[in-house]
Amino acid sequence: MTQETNLNTLKARFRGYFPVVIDVETAGFNSKTDALLEICAVTLKMDEDGWLSPDKTIHFHVSPFEGANLVKEALEFNGIKDPFSPLRGAVEEEHALKEIFKLIRKEQKAAGCQRSIMVAHNANFDHSFVMEASERSHLKRNPFHPFATFDTAALSGLAFGQTVLAKACQTAGIPFDNREAHSALYDTERTAELFCEIVNKWKKLGGWPVMAAEEESEQDSD
């Protein structure tokens, strides 16, 4: 295995972290009081040439936790008219997170990574809801870093001059249907594509591997 190939792994590319794309739909903005209603996670994989792509997807509709606050405007925004409807097929927070964490830990181990890091659009929002739900569910094996994230809103602002998910995707050449937006499943899949496009674009421009870029710069200066 060459040095170049060694660098073309998730653990080498992200300093031992395993990136997982997350999106949540909620009944408000306060992660401590407002209900988590939907969550989706997409794991990523890297081929032997170092190109990043989406891998596995896991998705749940979630029942409001006992005593959760439901903000009318938030429900109108995400289109979840009745969070308690049996037609949603919703599960408890604990069940959803246990299954998501189980998949993440399995894929993280297979990739040789030490910990997972959340990738999300305006990541602080999603991260706060996942962490609070995990705390409420008394889950001790949360694979995510307690505060570090990759925020695709910031990254796409740098790469494409756009911070809104739909506009960033469109600028990046990723199809985006606004009628499907604000579904955790749809938004996570688009965010995963966007993150991969940004990482791969940086590679195409010669920014990764860093050693190769530095060597090329030194050769140019000779």
Structure description:
The protein is an alpha/beta fold. Helix content is 44%, strand content 20%. It has nine helices and five strands. Strands 3-2-1-4-5 form a five-stranded mixed sheet, sandwiched between helices.
What's the helix and strand layout?
Layout: H1 3-7, H2 10-13, E1 17-26, E2 36-46, E3 52-61, H3 72-78, H4 93-110, E4 115-120, H5 123-136, E5 144-151, H6 152-160, H7 165-171, H8 184-204, H9 210-221
Parallel strand pairs: 1-4, 4-5
Antiparallel strand pairs: 1-2, 2-3
Helix pairs in contact: 6-8
Task: Give a concise summary.
By secondary structure, the chain is α/β, with parallel strands linked by helices. Helix content is 44%, strand content 20%. A hairpin with a 5-residue loop joins strand 2 and strand 3.
Shape: globular
Strands in their spatial order, largest beta sheet: 3-2-1-4-5
Q: What characterizes the major β-sheet?
A: 5 strands, mixed
Say how many strands there are: 5
User: End-to-end span in angstroms?
Assistant: 30 Å
Structural class, by secondary structure, is: alpha/beta
Taking all Cα atoms into account, the compactness measure Rg is 19 Å
What proportion of the residues is helical, as a percent range? 40-55%
Strand content: 15-25%
Order of secondary-structure elements: HHEEEHHEHEHHHH
List low-pLDDT spans.
none
Total number of helices: 9
- Mean pLDDT figure: 93
